[in-house]
């Protein structure tokens, strides 16, 4: 055998039984070339949303343990069907749930983290000549409860498997050709990137480019696992995510994104005492809420407004926590704004070039787009704008940085 | 606490989220009365059929291990939703899959038998005051593969749990009021029985009265577990299945059933040598096919026709096995007849009364219903008739034995 290839098929790549047969053919074609195959599958197309809808009919706030019990069935259906499809093609396949394959996570239901993984059962199956199919998105905590890894968690399953199995490559199959300089549905001149660094991809993923889960890219970076993001509908090369190369630095900006999945929360008129911000964000972190941008306005009259953004899906949880905190610290109340989008530019070139921020703000100003909040990292600049301005902003920035031109 | 009650809700009792809430209310009402509750749930309404249809789109003969992987998701969805519904009502519930609860089965996929069960995890949860929800129909074999217990397998889960937990009663919730003297949709005068013996119920179940799985009644009988079959849509008492009582023997016949789920297989002109029948049925049993009635016609010219009935669902498997056997033993081929129904009368009274068969055959003759095969047991007589004659036959027999009148 030539080594192990890990492939991950996302929901759109297995959205119906025809697509599942399609995926099975691709898996078998690799197998014929002499690779040991380990395949991670997401839930069929809309299954996850349908299951969420079922739970909503019962309660607005389902217990998270039971939500994981419910949602993990989606991937279990996919692995069984894909294994059947591979058998149909005359090859031996065996499917495993997260529990069966020994994916151990922490107890943080609905967004658990993998803390360990056994590869024994997979290796035994590979040795017997079987193609191994693993349910993405799920694991089991140490109390033997089923957990899920959060949206996009199947990517994490694939990368973690690629790591423990020392796979040659981890292929991420999706319904787009690869990673683009901007969302092609928004920017007509958007261009597919042949290569991108882990760091850039990490920022893009965190910023709402929904190609791959951010945490899984971190892990791929840490263990230097080559990722190939490509389409399950064509044979074309996609985008390789790899270590940063010298050449990449010539490129100022790799991509521009808009994330509409966040909301802005403002705790108003917080007494300006040392330690209060720490107390507030510790409490929020304990409730397992991911805070993204944080802005503290300049204090006047001993009080200050504290704003931060959170995923809209966490808003119900945030509401409870934030309002309790607001009372506790003697603030004047909490305000919410769901009408926001976070527009960002990403590029390792920023490290060595200045003026990227000024250029970005200039592009927005020319289109009369107001900036609400700003945050920056070494290779990223994000601005919060009105949701309705998101497309206009992305187009203006894409043009300003001439991202459509191959460099 | 007053002891443990095991309840099992069948597919129609949890066919949608409204029914699930309904089941949750019933569970909680028992809990309020002071019972420790263990609840077994089937898959939502048509889920199992939908999953089977998905697999059919891929292959006509799915690997059975993967079929179990697929089908077991149905119950997993139900337990999560029921647990959420109970939480919504303000009570603490926890759901377990067959694997989690330690239901160990043999390796016979799609119709596995329970060989062991641990009650530790359930008892721990009950001690913490939780209502325990268990996925019916499924277990795990010793290779840690998911198995399913065959159609109606949730009944087995419930009865087995009632046994290991020493439950006071095992309630089987369905969409009918209890066990009837005949199918009320076929016989207008059919009457609900207040009580029936395990043996009678066992025969009725084997004969196609789809109220409860036959194997589960065997287990209930063996361990003397009181079963209460009742409707999830009303508060009415249903039918108690218990040990045979003196009084029951006064009743000649308890019920009449028709089973349209079988087909007749005839291996033609088998050479009439000793040991051939044994060889044939050993091979069929090894293929995990349940043979029901067997008829061997009188031998002429050294050859004999061998007929038997099997569940229609096993017909594809039977075809392969029977045709191979036919060649091997030098028979003249295999014929199939799906156009049959098995009409049966059941009653412990037959033990002490004669003439039941004559009366039954008389009723059929009066209606000009031809009898194809006959088989009898101590408390049962079955006749195979044409499928189109089934309803007429059942009506005639029900009337002849005056089953509609309370005795």
Shape of chain A: globular
Sequence of strands across the biggest β-sheet of chain A: 3-6-2-1-9-11-12-10
Helical stretch tally of chain A: 12
Unreliably modeled segments of chain A:
none
Strand content of chain A: 25-35%
Quaternary state reads homodimer
Q: Which pair of chains has the greatest number of interface residues, and how are they split between the two chains? A: A-B, 36 and 36 residues
Mean pLDDT of chain A: 90
CATH superfamily of the domain at 4-175 in chain A: Acetylglutamate kinase-like
What structural class do helix, strand and pairing data of chain A support? alpha/beta
In angstroms, what is the radius of gyration of chain A?
22 Å
End-to-end Cα distance of chain A, whole Å, is 39 Å
The profile of the biggest β sheet of chain A is: 8 strands, mixed
- Shape-level CATH architecture of the domain at 4-175 in chain A: 3-Layer(aba) Sandwich
Percent helix of chain A: 25-40%
Determine and state the CATH class of the domain at 4-175 in chain A: Alpha Beta
**Tally of extended strands of chain A?**
20
